[in-house]
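Record 1 of the preview.
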Amino acid sequence: MTEVLFIVSFSFYFARALFFVIGSKKGRIKFKEIIINNYPFVSIIVPARNEEHNIIMCLESIVDSDYPRSKYEIIVVNDRSDDSTLELAEKFAQSHSNIRVLNISDDSQKVVAGKPGALDFGIKNSKGDYILLTDADCKVNRKWISSIVKTFIEKDSDLVAAFTLVKHNNFFDKFQAIEWILMHTMASGGMGLNFPLGCFGNNMAFKKSVYTQLGGYGGIEFSVTEDLALLQSVHKNGGKINYVCHRDSTVKTLPLDKFSDYLKQRKRWAIGGKKLGWKATLFVLASLLIWISAIVSLIEGHYYLSVIIMLLKIITDAILVLPTIFTVKEKGLLPYLLPSNFLFIIVELILPFLIINKKVEWKGQVFK
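->
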């Protein structure tokens, strides 16, 4: 019986991994050497709440882009910061004519609460045909804007999601970097086979006309993962979505320093992910069966089976993420794949207990 459970659980887990491998391959594209004769005007929205240590880094990376400066605007949305974010952004904007700073001093100025409201406020005041989103703690690739625009042109996309990399120095940083790459790979794999499973709001873009047709974030059910909510709405309404895996399309975010903050972030993602319905259930079931098989093997004294199935899980996850690591040129993370996978196991065990309490904290705000 134990052997049967072993075969069933690993077969299910391997099938899930194979699904993501096949789907993610479609996202690893090579941009054609096309010449854009008529550069479309794009608007880059940067929501910022208490980001005095990061906002200048973010803005400097955007203005260093290879995209014609007259063809894009940067809209910084200061969302009730109580530090010097607003002052720093306004001072920086004085020497850059294509930067506008919008200030939200009261929550009543937004159609919805939290980050979705700040994004909506910026989008409604934008001029671009395409909207690009990133966060104030991110540094964009110099070719980020042009690569996203090329995707819109080549693929006739309505929404484009791309990879966010994590800046890494110590082991905890590298663990987060590998985890983000793994999650991106699975998300792009799902989208490659027309199953929207998620994306990251600090690196996504869409046609403004599509956003307007949906009624903006005010017309979308509120979610603590507003990026997934928008992705699902665009897909539900027949929009064409592309999830791009290419170094040029990446942005780099800062890692979380504290494990407690890391768990809060994962809790928010897990609660938001419940919007996936049966897809989330299927996803969790594959991992759950692995754990059941390992525990049953231990209880019945088949220690070798328990060890084998956990090793197979680790190897399967590593195989899934390897092509992406090479594509986004993060080969320095390779030595940390194995130890990171052991930490993934610990987080996987902790997470179910975290989501019992539905309260979510983000940037000093509480959502339920």
